[in-house]
Structure formats: structure tokens, C-alpha cells
Amino acid sequence: EDIPGWLVGNEGNLTVALDISVTDELRNEGIARELVNRIQNLRKAKGFEITDRISVLLSSHPGIDEAVNANAAYIRGQVLADSIEITAETLEDEIEIDDQPLTIRIRKKN
Fold this sequence. Notes:
Blueprint: E1 6-11, E2 14-19, H1 24-45, E3 54-59, H2 64-70, H3 72-79, E4 81-87, E5 93-97, E6 100-108
Parallel strand pairs: 3-4
Antiparallel strand pairs: 1-2, 3-6, 5-6
């Protein structure tokens, strides 16, 4: 029988139920992982070395700003960023996070 918010499977005597509801925390973690992926792709496209430290500037977007702020340390660590900042400016590179377009600038640190 279906239970709202749960995925249930049966086989023989075994029943497994998974809670498939997405909390705000899980959604923010997913957005952070998507952002890490987009930044890594930009690093590669710009020819940065794997060890290059960078700074990240991201255009402000409702819903994404919260995820970036909540997971800033994780994002910085994954992409070797000394800083990640949010701005109202429109920046040069376009990316899409959680089906939302936004702009970003990454710069190699000296």
C-alpha cells in the first residue's frame, strides 16, 4: 500500500520503506553539489591547473543564495576557493543550478 512521502517495496517476507521527502537541508546540499560540479567544469574550460586556488563570485539568486551560504565551507574546500561571494552584478559566465540560470566569475589566485 502507498504511503505518502515513502517508497515501499516488498519481496517475500521482506518489506523496505524509504523516506523520499526532500528537506530544505537536503535540497541545499544538492544545490551545493551542483555548484561544485559547475565550478569544476569552468575550471577545466578555462585551463586552470588542478592545484590552482581560485576566488568565486556568484550572482545573487533567491533560493540558491541560502544553499551557498549554508554550504560555503564545503564548496570552498571542493573547488580550492579562497573565497566565495554573492553579488547583485551580472557576471561573465552563465551556469544553471537547480534549473535556475545565474552568472558566475572564477579567477585564479596568484
